[in-house]
Specification:
The structure holds two protein chains of two kinds. Chain A is α/β, with parallel strands linked by helices. Chain A contains twelve helices and nine strands. Chain A has helices at residues 3-14, 30-39, 62-73, 78-91, 103-109, 111-121, 140-145, 163-167, 190-204, 217-225, 234-241, 246-261, and strands at residues 18-24, 47-51, 97-101, 125-128, 149-150, 152-154, 174-177, 208-211, 229-232. The longest helix of chain A has 16 residues, at 246-261. Chain B has a six-stranded mixed β-sheet, with helices on both faces. The chains are: A alpha/beta, B alpha/beta.
């Protein structure tokens, strides 16, 4: 069983929802990012999404764009990000880690070389924003063959006609993008999200976590209540952008985690 | 036109939107349903005589097509070799080839019931063309333009605003065409239900490269019959400048299956194609990668990060190129060369002086290559160069490069 499946299984038995945190590798510099990333499980994070910096993140808002630019300016490379993943794996043998980013740095390294390195580093899954099901032959199928989960994105525009395409070759969990828009934009509405989550869960048989537009412990709790987990990215990255030291960033993350882990109706 | 389609270069892309390994649909899931809807609508429109009747009517009465194929006698004499013809697409309404494609996409947007049009622009020609057609049809128009380009193409910014468009200066990245395209895609992801993204070149996710090519192919189709009338035969060499590659693809595509026709695309060599990467020659100085929805040749570093590139010409200042060009290069059907800023500037002045035509900086690159090859070719060798835009927008840039102060 994969780390991701084990984690959702355990959370299910405990009656808890997953809290997924996104942090950009190398932001604002490799050492600070390392401290934050290694501290995430201690702050209550169930699954870590490690952002892979890219010059042209076309689905991301200004917060993540600038984080990528800071990381690249500080010398972060895909190889450096894989090294960070490997270090995380040594420190936290059981906590799932997925890489999230865009295809070109991976294509540039070479798909086979990348998958080998990612496996060796202990990466569990990949979220690649610009690889829809139509391009599965590029990376999704080779990743599955290499034993990595290829995590699908579903969106409000993923209608019933498209769900079968999204469900095919999906593994690990499904990341439901709760709004039509870019990261860090409008707030997600739990009432609007709930039926979509149910629809996607039924079609894929996989846990569904919801991200985009979640900025507070209260919002994390409300979204987690109608899904299998909540993802927070831009709000954490904003803390990093403001120059907060890792310990403070991790306290902020811990507040979000308590929100996501609280039962619906319970105070976050 | 050959009947044998099996060995044709003109059948691409395949059903996955690929030209060989290039092209494809590398977009986020949010956009995927829309891309598929667009493809379906384009397939229907393509077979609909009423769609093409409307296009033809607008091309004739609104754009002013066919554009002339002009024999350039004094340029020919000066170069002392091949006979040079200029395809005068700079005489189109709005002053460039861009409107050929914009009309088609706006008619499609109307068929799809979209009320809001967004576009990216570099030199501003595509933005002006989009603002123009939106004004004509009463559609809301938002144009994303790199902040750096807003500065160096001020007259076109004012034109767009006069035409009722909202021009949004893009400050992310280095503020050029690539960054404008990123922000246009972000807008589209956000406003996917009512918005149509009118892409200005033969790049982006399938079906854009094929669709834009089909609209721009009016250029090459006209050249075929115009050359038949003028010389009674096909041209020997056809030349066009390439940023994303839409004017070139429009000229080239109708000639791909004519083996006697030599095809040359001219990229922007900026300050020279070397490892300083101060150029925009994706084919000459880049390698395959994935950006803006398609796999193609890109300017990138060893880690797969996209480089900004550089050219004196805002319209060529793009680190990628249409995927069909990438394929034509790899299979060897077309040749691609690079021309520097300095060479383009010289060609710009030569055309002004010999033919009384002020060209845009983009086709000045194509002309500079014509100036290199024409002297070595015989007098009966026919060259057609696509003069895809007029130079009014560039006079301040040229003046600055030549050290002349122009007071406004």
């Amino acid at each position: 069983m994969t780390r991701i499946a084990e984690t959702f299984g355990r959370l299910g038995r405990e009656g808890r929802k997953a809290f997924v945190a996104y942090v950009m590798a190398g932001d604002p510099d490799p050492e600070t990012a390392r401290e934050i990333v290694l501290g995430l499980p201690g702050a209550g994070v169930d699954i870590v999404e490690l952002g892979v910096p890219f010059t042209d993140p076309m689905a991301d808002g200004p917060t993540i764009q600038l984080a990528g630019q800071r990381a690249l300016a500080a010398g972060q490379t895909l190889r450096g990000t894989l090294d960070l993943a490997a270090e995380f794996r040594r420190a936290h043998p059981d906590v799932p880690l997925v890489l999230m980013g865009y295809y070109n740095p991976i294509f540039s390294m070479g798909v086979e070389a990348f998958l080998g390195a990612a496996r060796e580093a202990g990466v569990d899954g990949l979220i690649v924003v610009d690889l829809p099901p139509e391009e599965d032959e590029e990376l999704a199928l080779p990743a599955r063959a290499a034993g990595l989960d290829f995590i699908r994105l579903a969106t409000p525009t993923t209608d019933d006609r498209r769900l079968p395409a999204v469900a095919a070759n999906a593994s690990g969990f499904v990341y439901y993008v709760s709004i039509t828009g870019i990261t860090g934009a409008a707030a997600a509405d739990p009432e609007a999200v709930a039926p979509d989550v149910a629809r996607i869960r039924a079609a894929t048989g996989l846990p569904v976590v919801v991200g985009f537009g979640i900025r507070t412990p209260e919002a994390a709790r409300a979204i987690a209540a109608v899904a299998d987990g909540a993802v927070v990215g831009s709000a954490i990255v904003s803390e990093v952008a403001q120059g907060r030291p890792p310990a403070e960033v991790l306290r902020f993350v811990a507040d979000l985690a308590r929100g996501a882990h609280a039962e619906a109706g319970e105070a976050a | 036109m050959p009947e044998d389609r099996v060995n044709s270069y003109r059948t691409g892309p395949d059903e996955r939107g690929r030209f060989g390994q290039f092209g494809g649909r590398f977009v986020s899931e949010t956009l995927m349903p829309l891309i598929l809807d667009l493809e379906a609508e384009w397939e229907r429109a393509k077979e609909d005589p009423a769609f093409w009747a409307e296009m033809d009517d607008l091309w004739t009465h609104y754009v002013g097509r066919p554009s002339p194929l002009y024999f350039a006698p004094r340029l020919t004499e000066r170069l002392g070799g091949a006979k040079i013809y200029l395809k005068r697409d700079e005489l189109n309404h709005t002053g460039a080839h861009k409107i050929n494609n914009v009309l088609g996409q706006i008619l499609l947007a109307r068929r799809m019931g979209k009320t809001r049009i967004i576009a990216e622009t570099g030199a501003g020609q595509h933005g002006v063309a989009t603002a123009t057609v939106c004004a004509k049809f009463g559609l809301q128009c938002v144009v994303y333009m790199g902040a750096h380009d807003v500065e160096r193409q001020a007259p076109n910014v004012f034109r767009m605003r006069l035409l009722g468009a909202t021009v949004i200066p893009v400050t992310s990245g280095r503020g050029t065409l690539k960054d404008a395209m990123n922000d246009a895609l972000r807008d589209w992801v956000t406003n996917v239900r009512d918005t149509f993204y009118c892409i200005g070149t033969v790049a982006g996710p399938h079906p854009y490269p094929a669709m834009v090519r089909d609209f721009q192919s009016i250029i090459g189709r006209e050249v075929r019959w115009q050359m038949e009338q003028a010389e009674g035969r096909l041209p020997d060499t056809i030349v066009a400048a390439i940023g994303g590659g839409s004017n070139a693809m429009g000229l080239f595509h109708p000639f791909l299956d004519d083996p006697s026709v030599r095809i040359i695309g001219v990229e922007a060599g900026g300050k020279g194609v070397d490892d300083r990467m101060e150029h925009c020659a994706s084919l000459t100085g880049g390698r395959p990668g994935v950006l803006h929805g398609n796999k193609t040749y890109l300017l990138q570093d060893a880690d797969g990060q996209i480089l900004e590139g550089y050219s004196i010409s805002a319209g060529l200042d793009y680190p990628g190129i249409g995927p069909e060009h990438a394929w034509l290069r790899d299979i060897g059907r077309a040749e691609y060369v690079a021309i520097t800023d300095a060479e383009a500037l010289e060609a710009f002045q030569v055309l002004c002086a010999t033919e009384g035509i002020i060209p845009a900086l983009e086709p000045s690159h194509a002309l500079a290559h014509v100036m290199k090859i024409a002297p070595g070719l015989p007098a009966d060798h026919l060259i057609v160069m696509n003069l895809c835009g007029r130079g009014d927008k560039d006079i301040f840039t040229v003046a600055k490069a030549l050290g002349v102060e122009v007071r406004t």
